[in-house]
Task: structure prediction
Amino acid sequence: MTALNPTVLACHGAFPFGQVSQFAGIQAIVENVAEANKVHIIDLAIKNGIQWTILIQALASRQHEYRLELLKITAVATEAKDLIDGTGKRLSSFAQSLGVPFAFKVVMVSDMLDLKEDFFELDAEETIVSYAAFAFRSMLVAPNRIENIMKVLRVMNPCLMVVTEVEANHNSPIFVNRFIEVLFYFSAYFDCIATCMEQDSKNREILESVFFGDGIRNMVAAEGTDRKVRNVKFDVWRAFFVRYGMEEAELSMSSKYQADLILKTFACGTCCTLDMNGKCLLVGWKGTPMLSISVWKFL
Result:
């Protein structure tokens, strides 16, 4: 997997949160497609797609038991098609190197309200999984977009939906409340950065000033529809998904084991915490929850 943004790649290697959520979530997928001959992933926010290298490796290792006919990944997006096409090419090359039959599709829409089942290339024999890593928080300003996605997914009937979201409440309409929540959350995150990255790191400078700086400014200072960056805690998401006719599924012991195993590979792993909120896994830094990983099924 080459040509990834160097800052993104550095963060992926330095901070445990991303890898913990990816390995735990992908483990849940592996368990649910264990005997499938055709697997179709619907990714609602694919970005660099590095999480799918984990799945491709897992499927490659079981080829002697269950011959996989096809792994298809469909990326759903409203922008950045060139970047997504690049992700598809990297994943295709990686899958080919491991002998995994692979197809990459892109569904581009101008607005998630326009998304329809007809836009997807579906096969009656394939097992469908939906994956949403930090996909829904950008739609909190217009929840009808989330509702439309759920209607489309319900028709396609995925066997599982894996959801990862920031575990924080940055959506208060009251400035002071929002400011305090952002302060506490990012105090923990900046402590993580100080622990895991060198002070003079160029990637750290870009991360703090560009990635986090712009996001914090938008969360705190912007109002109304200008506030694009919004986060809510898992209990709010739980109510959302239940309302859409979904049932929370249990994260297996294997998923939790994968999360714990990944933490042990990081020098700063002892500063991370793994807790449960019902059936949802919360990943934290020194006791402050940072993100949630949950799995869902349609009733």
Observations:
- The first helix runs from residue 6 to 14.
